[in-house]
UniProtKB/TrEMBL annotation:
Domain POTRA: 44-112
Cited PANTHER family: CELL DIVISION PROTEIN FTSQ
Cellular compartments per GO CC: membrane
Record-linked InterPro entries: FtsQ, POTRA, POTRA_FtsQ_type
Descriptive protein name: Cell division protein
Main location: membrane
Coiled-coil portions: none
Gene Ontology BP terms: cell septum assembly
Keywords: Cell cycle, Cell division, Cell membrane, Membrane, Transmembrane, Transmembrane helix
Entry's localization field: Membrane
């Protein structure tokens, strides 16, 4: 009888203990669910921008273009809209924005490369190989050749036929003789159609080539520069329009 009573008490205690453990587990799960719902309801804020690919554009410029304010909700960011904002800048060739983690944005930029500086009507423009204007009076690429003249600029491009001819001719000259490119600092197209090349180093020269820059003129230009550099001849002007080069 005594043993039966002891066993009964043990079973009762064990059952109560199991009930208490089960109740405690239910409470923990319920509390976790409530906290989870509360945390999910709290909007996450953007904490970090990771920007890659920008060389000429500054980080603060990119942030300003995005128009993202401190405390911006990370969950409601419109990535397509942000990409469009950056794509409007003339230096940006392409952009891709992704959510890298729970509070970080990854911005991958590809910038257009400046090919020349255009000096026209008192302003300096950077242009790329497609003649798109990348900047106005904000030159950030160093050691570029300057193409000078009066060239109309419309809708962010140079559409003037005379400029296209000059650009093509200068490109041809640099392809024929790559050594010309670091030596020529400026090419001027005058109103009367005359073309002048300016060299700064190692010998300062102003060279008049005529109204057409064909292959023979390019060869003469290269030969004159090589000759003047070799003999260290100083001159204000070299005229190569005729068969012989004339210098003053």
């Amino acid at each position: 009888m005594r043993h039966n009573l002891i066993d009964f008490l043990r079973e009762l205690i064990q059952k109560r203990r199991n009930i208490l453990l089960l109740a405690l587990l239910v409470c923990i799960l319920g509390l976790g669910a409530v906290l989870g719902i509360r945390f999910q309801g709290i909007p996450r804020e953007l904490n970090k921008l990771i920007i890659t690919g920008h060389e000429k554009l500054k980080t603060e410029e990119i942030v300003r273009m995005l128009e993202i304010q401190p405390g911006t909700s990370f969950d409601t960011l419109d990535l397509d809209l942000l990409e469009k904002k950056l794509s409007r800048h003339p230096r940006v060739a392409s952009v891709r924005i992704t959510k890298k983690s729970e509070d970080q944005l990854l911005i991958e930029l590809t910038e257009r490369k400046s090919s020349y500086i255009v000096n026209s009507e008192g302003h300096l423009y950077e242009i790329d190989s497609d003649l798109h204007v990348l900047s106005k009076d904000d030159v950030r690429e160093k050691d570029l050749c300057i193409l000078s003249g009066n060239f109309p600029i419309k809708n962010g491009t140079i559409q003037d036929a005379s400029f296209r001819d000059l650009y093509t001719s200068v490109e041809q000259a640099f392809r024929m003789y790559p050594a010309l490119k670091p030596r020529i600092s400026e090419v001027l197209l005058q109103e009367d159609g005359e073309i002048f090349f300016f060299a700064d180093e190692p010998v300062p020269l102003r060279i008049q080539v005529g109204t057409l820059l064909h292959k023979d003129q390019i060869r003469k230009l290269y030969a004159v520069l090589a000759y003047f550099e070799k003999d260290k001849i100083r001159s204000e002007l070299v005229d190569i329009r005729g068969e012989d080069a004339v210098y003053h």
